[in-house]
Amino acid sequence: MRHPALKLDEVIDAEALRDTLSALTKERGGEGSDPAIRAEVLAALKRELAAGRKRIEAMLLEDRSGYACTHRLSFQMDEIIRIIHDFAVTHVYRGANLSEGEKMAIVATGGYGRDALAPGSDIDLLFLLPHRQTARIEQIVEYILYMLWDLGLKVGHATRNIAECIRLAKSDVTIATAMLEARFIWGEKSLFKELETRFVEDVEKAGGRDFTAAKLAERDERHRKHHNSRYKVEPNIKEGKGSLRDLQTLYWIGKFVYRVDSSRDLVGKGVFTQREYNLFQRCDDFLWAVRCHLHFVTGRAEDRLGFDFQPEIAERLDYHAKPGLSSVERFMKHYFLVAKEVGDLTRIFCAALELEQAKTAPGIAAGLVRPFTRRRKAVKGYPDFVIENGRLNVADAEVFERDNVNMVRLFWLGDREELEYHPDALSLVTRSLKLVTRELRRNEEGNQLFLDILTSRKDPEIQLRRMNETGLLGRLIPDFRKVVAMMQFNMYHHFTVDEHLLRCIGHLAEIEKGHFASDHPLATEFCQDLSDTQRRILYVAILLHDIAKGRPEDHSIAGARIAKKLGPYMGLSKSETATVRWLVREHLTMSMVAQSRDLNDRKTIEDFAEVVQSVDRLKLLLILTVCDISGVGPGVWNAWKGQLLRQLYAETELLLTGGFSGASRARRIEGARQRLSEGLSEWPEAEREAYAQLHYPAYLLAVDHDAQLRHAAFIRKTTEAGERYAVDVRTLAFEGMTEMTVLAIDHPRLLSIIAAACAASGANIVDAQIFTTTDGRALDTIRIAREFDTDADEIRRAHSVGRTIGEVLKGEAHIPQLKKRSRGRRKVRAFSVSPEVSVDNTLSNEFSVVAVEGLDRTGLLSDLTHALSDLNLDIASAHITTFGERVVDTFYVTDLTGAQIESPTRQKRITDRLCAILNPASAEQAAA
Fold first, then answer.
1. Integer CA distances (angstroms), 813 to 488, 749, 808, 867, in order
2. What regulation of activity is recorded for this protein (predicted)?
């Protein structure tokens, strides 16, 4: 690719700066070592450094070239170091010329050596000596370093002679990597040339295999730390998968093994094709541009592309919104496409290099050392494919030209034989994507092979992932291609849309194998009884459920339309396609009903049953919902959500099968009460039976058995101690939350008090369950986002919240005081959510349902519940649901006489009051 002109003469006028520093010394009539002169020299250098940085930032905004920006920053730093060195030698440590033993070379290493500096990068320097360090050299080196440090730069440095450099490079791969990119800056150039020669002869030629193995292992460990995904929505652009470090690893290995001076030379060595080299350059330039912008925006060496910074970077790179996608989402989609291309390059290059080196590796057979040989065997029945050294490969470069169905057949065979793929085969797929025609997409055999891959009982996720990495999946399903690398700019979704879909497929496969039976008992049970037809429906529906994301219309409706179009081509019957279409359209319904509706209200179950209409659909929708929530990201699924889904399923199944009646419900309630009693077998029988009668049906049906037993021990202990108020705390490490269970005399403002206490402590409530007992006590369980890493600190924080609640209940503190102490912790400045409030009397026969949606913040629940109490509303139940930065809260309320809110005037007063609370500007004014 062509880079813009570097315009280095506009970055810094080195001669003018030298003249300025010399003039300062002459004007002061003293030596450069004078502290006053040093201070003025430092001030002049600071001014030039800052002015140069501003010029470089302006150039970046103009030409958007990361390559040019890093080279300009490196050039500026080179000149400053040269000037400092010469000033030290000429004006600070004046004297006779340096002896041969006192001459040194200043060498840039690491990224700086590669001419690749970001604004916040470390300056890595090697002061290269001919022999031992002398006092004079030590003085000069210290002067340079202290000036650089006083300029506010982070400097990594070493002072070594050539022999020390070679010895350390042989024993330390990090030092070898830094020296691999060494670049002469100033001083005795012959020293540097000698180092280069020795490094090639003694390190590169001798240790290519060890270096390659070490860098590949280093890469794998780095990927593991970043969860082996390049599709995290807040990526690390330096160290994450698909990042700059992956490109650098590719370059380091190529340079070490092939001993070339630049990545361009790898084309001549046959490592890169010209197309691949151009792709390497484009990816490198884009990632460096993003990193440089990020450093300029944050004013520090920030490499995590967080939500707070993404909108401004998108604006700087001139991305614009289009229907269905905001400007930041378009920018991040481009970012993830680049990360995918980086992954393609590094995976294929490194795998090919591994095989290339393996050819000369020793092997062991029958106790004898023998050279590695290339072993190929045909795949029986499929002459276009071979198994080469345990990897599936194509027989020749024309297999896809002869029959383009072979592109799908490759992955079908990989799944059948459970083989990894030879990099040559994957490269050929990517280069042959033009062969994916409309005819192939409609080919009956090709679609059957794809359906076999999708519904495989082995590992469908890995096969689909490989197809996606090569670009084949998006070519076979053009609508899927639209969501490849697409991120959703919110705090709820952890991955891009395509990554989410593939993870959902993987989660379904694991549920089928029984690997998640404890987390998803009902889904696991249903999966064991699925027919082949139901399995096809379910896998296709999960693959397609978010395929219409990024469009102006509701993605569920648009996705259903896509499912209707694709179903027949994928070999589904008319009825199968109809079911897939329904599942895609309703894939969010069960989750929303379970989390935001009162499941003990019969109207909720009746309305949901009317949508579902059959038990078979209900089972499929439950499994899809479990996979969808689990595939969002780590910690999103939790036992609480599982229990809500199971309760919704149980209630709805009864209604659909004609069993929903007072009698059947009573039997289930009595069964739950009996299980609770049996679980307390160590208690005296009378006490056990009395406790089982303490809870209302809503509690017995909604709370899982293990939680009921914990609550029983907590309530018993509190009652025996004669306490009117108590808090039980436990941490949930997997979910990243802390659970607080509050037992207190029921109070109309108890939820508001709890929420206010949490807000005062900076705790964000992410879930809440509210129950009362038959003896007039409230049993409220809330979950707050975890703040501390250690359980001890987290538990102390939760108990502090509990003490605050107790203070209010005892009259020792008041809610207005708590509001003044409230402090927000969540980083949601980058997001906006339009406030929505509704009052609906059709969702319940007994209550008015107040639905609230808006931007979450610490203290919001407290403000909402306090306002509802001020409006003389009695909260019968509350359902608190957060989706990242978006909160969806539902309150089942009546007026103080127990009636629904019928008056339009009063309904408007409720919506106006709550909308004002949701409005960020209003909230800030209220806080002030």
1. 42, 14, 5, 19
2. Uridylyltransferase (UTase) activity is inhibited by glutamine, while glutamine activates uridylyl-removing (UR) activity.
Q: What amino acid occupies position 132?
A: R
Q: Is the pLDDT of residue 199 over 70?
A: yes
Backbone torsions φ then ψ of 391, nearest 5 degrees: -120, 145
What phi and psi values does residue 12 have, to the nearest 5 degrees? Answer: -155, 135
Per DSSP bridges, beta strands 368-371 and 362-365 are antiparallel
Confidence band for 216, pLDDT divided at 50, 70 and 90: confident
873 close to 895: Cβ distance less than 8 angstroms: yes
Q: What average pLDDT does this structure show over 706-714?
A: 94
Q: Residue 171 and residue 256: Cα distance in Å, rounded?
A: 15
255/251 Cα distance (integer angstroms): 6
- In the numeric block, which tokens belong to residue 643? 């229990």
Could you tell me whether strands 848-855 and 836-840 are parallel, antiparallel, or unpaired per DSSP bridges? Answer: antiparallel
Residue 176 CB-density burial (10 A; 0-12 exposed, 13-18 middle, 19+ buried): buried
pLDDT in tens, 391-448: 999 999 999 999 999 999 999 999 999 999 988 899 899 889 999 999 999 999 999 9
Mean pLDDT of the chain: 87
Angstrom distance (rounded) from CA 490 to CA 827:
11
Axis-axis angle for helices 615-630, 602-612 (nearest 10): 100
- Cα atoms found within 13 Å of the Cα of residue 23, Cβ hemisphere only: 7
Rounded to the nearest 5°, which phi and psi values hold at 246?
A: -65, -45
Q: Angle 532-544/574-585 helices, nearest 10 degrees?
A: 40
> Are the CB atoms for 430 and 441 separated by under 8 Å?
no
- pLDDT tens by residue, 614-624: 999 999 999 99
Other CB atoms within a 10 A radius of the CB of residue 299 amount to: 9
* Helix (H) or strand (E) run with residue 783 in it: strand 777-785
> Would you state the structure tokens that stand for residue 885, as one six-digit string?
């930065």
Q: How many CB atoms lie within 10 A of CB 126?
A: 27
Q: Check residue 92 and report its DSSP letter.
A: I
The set of residues, in sequence order, having a beta carbon less than 8 Å from that of 784 and lying 6+ positions away, is 737, 738, 740, 758, 763, 764, 765, 766, 798, 801
Q: In what order do the strands lie in the sheet with 420-421?
A: 376-379, 382-388, 391-394, 420-421
Q: Residue 665 — pLDDT band, cuts 50, 70, 90? A: confident
Of 348, 167, 183, nearest to 253 (Cα)? 348
The DSSP 8-state label assigned to residue 231 in this structure reads: -
What secondary structure does DSSP assign to 535-564, as a single string? HHHHHHHHHHTTTTTTSSS-HHHHHHHHHH
Tokens 């809260």 locate to 889
DSSP, collapsed to helix, strand or coil, labels residue 341 as helix
The residues near 256 (Cβ < 8 Å, ≥ 6 apart) are 176, 180, 204, 208, 211, 212
* Residues 290/335, Cβ–Cβ less than 8 Å: yes
Domains and CATH numbers, the chain: 8-216 (3.30.460.10), 226-361 (1.20.120.330), 477-656 (1.10.3210), 724-825 (3.30.70.260), 832-928 (3.30.70.260)
* Measured distance CA(228)–CA(750) in Å, rounded: 44
- Residue position matching structure tokens 């100033």: 186
Tell me if 287 sits within 8 A of 237, measured CB to CB: yes
Q: How far apart are CA 122 and CA 903, in angstroms?
A: 66
Cα–Cα dist 778/789, whole Å: 30
Q: What is the pLDDT of residues 859-907, one digit of tens each?
A: 788 889 889 989 999 888 888 887 777 888 999 999 988 899 999 999 9
Provide mean pLDDT across the span 495-514.
Answer: 94
Tell me, letter by letter, the H, E, C secondary structure of 617-669.
HHHHHHHHHHHHHHCCCCCCCCHHHHHHHHHHHHHHHHHHCCCCCHHHHHHHH
Other Cβ atoms within 10 Å of 440 Cβ, number: 17
Q: What is the maximal distance between C-alpha atoms in the chain?
A: 106
